[in-house]
Specification:
Number of helices: 31
Strand order of the largest sheet: 7-6-5-8-9-10
Distance between the termini: 25 Å
CATH architecture of the largest domain: 3-Layer(aba) Sandwich
Number of domains: 5
CATH topology of the largest domain: Rossmann fold
Low-confidence stretches: 1-5
Shape: globular
Radius of gyration: 29 Å
Strand content: 5-15%
Length: 763
């Protein structure tokens, strides 16, 4: 089985951050800049016009610049992760990473700023000086107690949203989790006893928020490294002094007796089973220290049956992850040009997140997290981080709260339209690859990696193993594979290696020869030839899948496509004439995945084969839990030409509709109408694809399909995954010659999903 949750190697992490281009972010233009006219408008002399408008009214900066979608992530590096005070420059990778999360989850642009000062006044003054650039400011990794003063002052002195995520992010997410956990166990928040372990910025912010939610002050006990914060303590910070309690309790173990809730924001492995056993009925335990929680999930759950448990780890139920909050809080605040992020906005986020967990979970989320039916309850009290509904649930709630509390400078009148805009910002399928990976991890399959004596293939096998995506089987020269594994310390010692030249494989080869010979003896293949071919790994690999010794097969990264595909088609290809094998490339666009077919197999298919290719490709799309919407491409539109290609595509459309009436399909049509739905609606309002952006593009022949995907890929317009073979009897996929490690990993995940789907279908 895959080794899940293994620590990623330092070398891999450093290579990722370095790459061909160091860092994780870039700045790109979003307006045309190809002509002299474009540049004259973008800069001198045309740029003077928006400058004049902004000088007349500062609010116009939101109309004519990126200010309204730009957040500064600012740190001085004094409290970075669990590393402590490592300085501003060393904090930069974290700040860039925060920028990535803002972008992929909420389409917010980020500049990261690392300030070389520990002086609170200098920090505040610097941020104030820079503030006209930004629509909002996210403070990050600043040590306590300075972080409290910095945030308070900036909120008072600036008129843009300010939030210290280390304080408020965890508070908002755990606040939602607390409300839902209490609902599950049927306890009133005014009656519960809450114990905190840890008194840093996050813990103090959580405690304040819990009080806002209804926890009574006398029922909240806070512990730091010296034990309970009680009235006899001296030398406490101003923040800790607000949680002084007159109590005889002195230690964490004493405080936990009969407690209803434990919130850990301290360090790993300080909470024991014995302590949990002393807690009240139906205890709620939030063990949030990273990377190791105060008590492990399994240990806590084994201590008693009535516990509700949450951690910061993705491999446990109820993951408390700040990404559930901060991208969408800023999204809502920016969209109404809020002057601040106030308590009402934070509470709105809390309730929105809590309520979302009670809603029926979309199938795409169930699939991504390996569940058949995620349902509100002890193991599901907060939404999953990849839930696509978060952006159009939390952001509107925050925006409404800003408007109702009087801090919004812009109103939203049409909330349905706003929700739709949020859905379209990232595209409903934008998280495609991430969701594919998560779905693969739910039930990893045995994947044969041919050409495993190549470093890139072997590296990809390492990644899929350690990420739990697949169970790799390495096919190639055993001596070379072991040498590469040792040279690069890949940790693949326990992974099965198959070398067809090894005597240990002779019994298996003999069985494979017999099977292959029986299937090919009436197609000109003699026994001796069958024996010769099965000693070749290109034939041996597909036979492993056919004989049930593997679930899927990958090849092609080191050889030309015709050589790689021939044995696959002979051994794993369609069993009858009702199916046509084809190659599909997944093109990753800003609007989501787009499937190009047939890009690799059929040179000039007739209408019947076009229809079969379209239906097979649609089935692939359905496996990814996406509704296929098919555009049949040509040089003409809906009968405007009587040429052979046009007629062929029209005939194919009719065949598709007869074969599968449930499919959304139309054509023939030119590519510009297929990709621009507004243009399609304007010129051909009768089309079945109006209002339904096509995601499957069926080309009339191999030349047009292959040229199209390679142009888009080579020009950097789109990332391509594939080709993925459809129409086969068994799962197999042919990589591009020279595929990158990333491309191999992506295709392996697709192969796993392909294999998964066949267990529950008649394919």
């Amino acid at each position: 089985m895959p080794k899940k949750n293994r620590t990623i190697r330092k070398k891999d992490i450093l290579e990722y951050h370095e790459g061909k281009r160091p860092g994780k972010i870039e700045v790109i233009p979003i307006k045309p800049s190809n002509s002299q006219r474009d540049l004259s408008i973008a800069y001198s002399p045309g740029v003077a016009e928006p400058c004049i408008k902004i000088s007349e009214n500062k609010a116009n900066a939101y109309r004519y610049t990126a200010k309204g979608n730009l957040v500064a992530v600012i740190s001085n590096g004094t409290a970075v992760l669990g590393l402590g005070d490592i300085g501003p420059l060393a904090s930069k990778p974290v700040m860039e990473g925060k920028g990535v999360l803002f972008k992929i989850f909420a389409d917010i642009d980020v500049f990261d700023l690392e300030l070389d000062t520990t002086n609170t006044e200098k920090f505040i003054e610097t941020v104030k000086i820079l503030s006209p650039t930004f629509g909002g400011i996210n403070l990050e990794d600043i040590s306590a107690p300075e972080c409290f003063e910095i945030e308070h002052r900036l909120r008072e002195e600036l008129d843009i949203p300010i939030m210290h995520d280390d304080q408020h992010g965890t508070a908002i997410i755990t606040g939602a989790a607390l409300l839902n956990a209490l609902e599950v166990v049927k306890k009133d928040i005014k009656d519960i006893k809450v114990v905190f372990n840890g008194a840093g910025a996050s813990a103090i912010s959580c405690a304040f928020l819990y009080l806002s939610l209804g926890v009574l002050p006398e029922n909240l006990i806070m512990c730091d490294s010296k034990g309970v914060i009680h009235s006899g303590r001296k030398g406490l910070t101003n923040q800790k002094m607000k949680f002084i309690r007159k109590t005889p309790l002195r230690s964490l173990s004493e405080a936990l007796k009969n407690a209803d809730v434990f919130v850990g924001l301290s360090k790993g492995n300080i909470l024991t089973q014995e302590m949990i056993m002393t807690m009240g009925k139906d205890p709620i335990v939030f063990a949030l220290a990273n990377p190791d929680p105060e008590i492990s999930y399994n240990l806590a759950k084994s201590s008693r049956d009535d516990i509700i448990m949450a951690t910061g780890r993705s491999d446990n139920p109820n993951q408390v992850n700040n990404v559930l909050g901060f991208p969408y809080i800023f999204r809502g605040a920016l969209d109404v040009r809020a002057s601040e992020i106030n308590e009402k906005m934070k509470l709105a986020a809390v309730h929105a997140i809590a309520e979302l967990a009670k809603e029926p979970v979309p199938e795409i989320v169930n699939l991504a997290y390996g569940s058949r039916n995620l349902t509100f309850g002890p193991d599901y009290i907060i939404p999953k981080p990849f839930d696509p509904r978060l952006i159009y649930t939390v952001a509107p709630a925050v925006a409404k709260a800003a408007m109702e509390s009087g801090v919004a400078k812009k109103s939203i009148d049409n909330w349905a339209s706003y929700e739709n805009d949020l859905r379209n910002r990232l595209g409903l399928d934008d998280k495609f690859i991430r969701l594919v990976m998560e779905k693969a991890k739910t039930d990893p399959k045995r994947v044969v990696f041919n050409e495993a004596d190549n470093y890139k293939v072997l590296k990809a096998a390492q990644i899929v193993l350690e990420e739990g995506i697949a169970i790799p089987i390495l096919l190639g020269n055993e001596k070379k594979i072991k040498s590469l594994n040792d040279e690069y310390s890949l940790g693949l010692e326990e992974v099965k290696i198959i070398d067809t030249k090894s005597s240990s494989e002779l019994p298996r080869i003999s069985d494979y020869i017999d099977s292959y010979y029986k299937s090919r003896q009436r197609k000109g293949v003699g026994y001796d030839e069958a024996r010769r071919l099965l000693l070749n790994r290109d034939y041996f690999g597909p036979m492993m899948v056919k004989m049930g010794d593997a679930d899927a097969y990958l090849t092609g990264s080191m050889v030309k496509y015709p050589r790689a595909v021939k044995p696959v088609m002979e051994i794993l290809g369609p069993k009858d004439d009702n199916r046509t094998a084809a190659g599909v490339y997944v093109m990753l666009t800003k609007k989501g995945p787009r499937f190009f077919t047939d890009t690799t197999m059929n040179q000039n298919p007739d209408a019947e084969k076009i229809a079969q290719i379209a239906c097979e490709s649609a089935e692939l799309v359905r496996k990814m839990n996406i509704e296929p919407r098919i555009a049949l491409l040509s040089y003409s539109n809906f009968g405007s030409s009587s040429g052979k290609t046009s007629v062929k595509m029209r005939d194919a459309m009719n065949l598709i509709r007869m074969s599968d009436p449930s499919l959304i399909v139309d054509g023939e049509m030119q590519a510009n109408f297929a990709v621009d739905n507004n243009l399609l609606k304007e010129q051909f309002p009768f089309s079945d694809l109006v209002g339904k952006d096509p995601n499957v593009f069926v080309f009339p022949g191999l030349s047009s399909a292959n040229i199209s995907y390679k142009l888009l890929q080579s020009m950097g317009s789109m990332e391509a995954v594939g080709p993925l073979l459809v129409g086969l009897t068994y799962p197999a996929h042919i990589l591009q010659l020279g595929s990158s490690v990333r491309e191999i990993v992506n295709t392996a995940a697709m192969a796993v999903i392909d294999a998964q789907s066949r267990e529950t279908s008649d394919l």
